[in-house]
Amino acid sequence: MSQQVDKTKTEKTGAIAVQVDDLTVAYNYKPVLWDIDLEIPEGVLMAIVGPNGAGKSTLIKSILGILKPIAGSVNIYGKSYKKQRHLVAYVPQKGSVDWDFPTTALDVVTMGTYGSLGWIKRPGQKEKKEALEALEKVGMLPFKNRQISQLSGGQQQRIFLARALVQNASIYFMDEPFQGVDATTEIAIINILKELRKAGKTVIVVHHDLQTVPEYFDWVTFLNVKKIATGPVKDIFNDDNLTKTYGINYKVSIQE
Amino acid sequence: MSNAQIEIQLIAALVAIACAIPGSFLVLRKMAMISDAISHSILPGIVIGFFITQDLNSPVLILLAALTGIITVVLVEYIQNTGLVKEDTAIGLVFPTLFSIGVILIAKNANDVHLDVDAILLGELAFAPFDRLLISRVDVGPKSLWIIGCILIITITLLIAFFKELKVSTFDAGLAASLGFSPTLIHYGLMSISSITSVGAFDAVGAILVVALMIAPAASAYLITNNLKRMLVYAISFGVFSAIAGYWLAHALDASISGSITTMLGLVFLSVYLFAPNKGVIAVLYREKQQRTEVLLLTFLLHLKNHTEETERHVNHLNEHINWGKVRSKTILDLALKNNMIQFNKNIVALTEKGDAFTTQAIDYIITNEDGQIEDMKDDFFLFRG
């Protein structure tokens, strides 16, 4: 399988951006993810949906090597994450960091450049310029010198997005980027995500609002400890899969 | 000042700097208590190291004791990871156990004058200049000075080299991990430096003061800046100031040096806590009062804008209608007048052009929920604050 992926890699189109094989993750002997097989094609804007405790964040974290799985493997464009780190950007949940940390918006965005710098090397003018460009893209340039605790929830989320943009990655992982943001910010964020897809990037988003799935995404993965289904939204985003995932009779009106 | 006095102050100042650097990161990582644990549980390491080397200032002893510090951290994390008890409980279980092993070891060898529990808890800075380092029989200064100097150089070198890694892993461990900067490695690096610093400072200032020197300057600095580099600089400055001022306090009172330094650290924190420009208690109280007045002023202006009829805008009616007391009404009226927001015409109050523009914009921002912009707008419009 992995050899096939390597071949297709040169042509890009039709390539598998992320491949997850038999992934099992457990916290204290309790499986959170069970035997997940997942192929994410390049260039999709994908939602991961599922109830609380379904292992959505855990899936992202184990793909990124933040959590150690007890079984299974993950490949990014056919190679291990360690070798492909430069291709991947990650936006954690907003609540996962301390926003009282003594630093500014610009500084947080600059952290996105640290990966390409490697150990010890300091960010310089080039990195600062890239960070400013990313701030501009998310409309946060006027706030660049704000202390991060002085930003609203939506602004903080935009800063996180800018930090991922500055990594100039091929694959973006985002953990609930729409949590606690207002409608304006939500639209601004989804527009940037759609732009990323247009530029051929792969974007994977942990998402909670089922109503907006058909509108925002073209690919979806249903997850509840096990993988329920994965594929194009138009083919698999239906009441059947929703019911299987959420365990109750779910009805969503899908806009055609 | 005598040579010994200068040496004592120099040692105290270097210890303060060496402690403030890891201390700042411990405070930001909400791990202040772990420094307490480390500084106590290195005791058995020191005692065993002393049995082996017979020299309190031997590098072997320092490494052995630092290793005990790391073991403490590992044990705390191990107990915590079982999920049976919380972190603070785990800390409370580990360090007294290790510390008491050290105490028993000392008691069993009580004939040794060099190690006694008092000195370990409180240090004896006053004696530090007596223990000299001789190189080819030439006196090059007190041993403590050389030890803490070496530790400080290592700490500063590591801080400069890995500042970016420390910052990103402290702020966002998940991002650090995904970028390839192992948070675990950085965590244990910081723990090692904290342990080594604790051992190095131990002899001079004792187990209790090490904690104070790590936490109090960093906590004070945290209250007065929003910039990590400045936080480090302020923490170092507070530490050095307290160390030197504490020495002279001890001199004046003829009291324990380490006790006086800790007192100074407490006083520094208290003054910062009260008087810090933004986060200080007084600043917060003042800002709350100001905000209350501003909200009242805004309410008043909105009322004027909402009512064109003259009866609603008569000075005498305002009291009843908005339901404010005389004093409050007068304060707000005066403030609005001073800021050219309103004008009087035969006791009828009306918005000026400026007041009208301000109110329109405020309504606009309130509807769109742009709270931050209202704050900026206030700066543009208000000359006089309540």
UniProtKB/TrEMBL annotation, chain B:
A single GO BP: transmembrane transport
Query: Which keywords describe this protein according to UniProt?
Result: Cell membrane, Membrane, Transmembrane, Transmembrane helix, Transport
**Could you give one GO CC term from the UniProt record?**
ATP-binding cassette (ABC) transporter complex
- Coiled-coil ranges from the UniProt annotation: none
Q: Which residues cross the membrane?
A: 6-28, 37-54, 60-78, 90-107, 144-163, 175-198, 204-224, 231-250, 256-276
List locations, semicolon-separated. Answer: Cell membrane
Q: Which InterPro entries match?
A: ABC_BtuC-like, ABC_TroCD
In terms of Pfam families, this protein maps to: ABC-3
Q: Topology with regard to the membrane?
A: Multi-pass membrane protein
Q: Which PANTHER family match?
A: ABC-TRANSPORTER METAL-BINDING PROTEIN, METAL TRANSPORT SYSTEM MEMBRANE PROTEIN CT_070-RELATED
For this chain, the family text in UniProt reads: Belongs to the ABC-3 integral membrane protein family.
Q: What's the protein here called?
A: Zinc ABC transporter permease
Q: Which organism is it from?
A: Neotamlana nanhaiensis
